[in-house]
Automatic annotation (TrEMBL):
InterPro entries with a match to the protein in the record: SCP_3
Ranges for domain Bacterial SCP orthologue: 33-123
Top-level taxon of the source organism: Bacteria
UniProt cross-references to Gene3D superfamilies, sorted A to Z: 3.30.1050.40
Organism: Mycolicibacterium goodii
Name this protein carries in UniProt: Bacterial SCP orthologue domain-containing protein
Length: 128
């Protein structure tokens, strides 16, 4: 059985596809919580797999927090490099429907290395 911390590319694409209409049109009904959670978790875990490491923590409350990007390891307390956003903004970034530079106000970044996350996005693409 696969670890719950890994993300299968096919399952990630399937999970994102299930919420894609809502991502393209915010006036549509928000997906059910389990669908939204699955898409958020799998895309964040995909980021962690693509950019392994522990120097930046990406948080998408209430669903997931992952550490990524090689560099100094963080193990306790508040990490020095954090990226935090809401589920919809995260999915827009993770799918390439939104650029991190255009997400001002919706993404909180702290630490000198937090902006490096942008280099690894998107993790999965869907058509606009």
């Amino acid at each position: 059985m696969a670890s719950r911390r890994t993300a299968d590319p096919a399952k990630t694409l399937e999970a994102v596809s299930a919420v894609a209409d809502w991502l393209r049109d915010p006036h549509r009904d928000q997906p059910a919580r389990p669908q939204l959670a699955e898409a958020v978790r799998l895309t964040a875990r995909t980021l962690a797999a693509l950019a392994p490491g522990s120097s930046v923590e990406v948080r998408v409350p209430p669903f997931v927090a992952v550490q990524c990007i090689s560099g100094p390891r963080h193990t306790r307390g508040t990490p020095p490099n954090v990226v935090e956003t809401d589920p919809r903004t995260w999915l827009l970034l993770a799918t390439g429907l939104l650029d991190i530079a255009d997400a001002a106000g919706a993404v909180q970044m702290s630490g000198s290395r937090a902006s490096e996350v942008a280099r690894w996005l998107p993790v999965v693409r869907i058509d606009p």
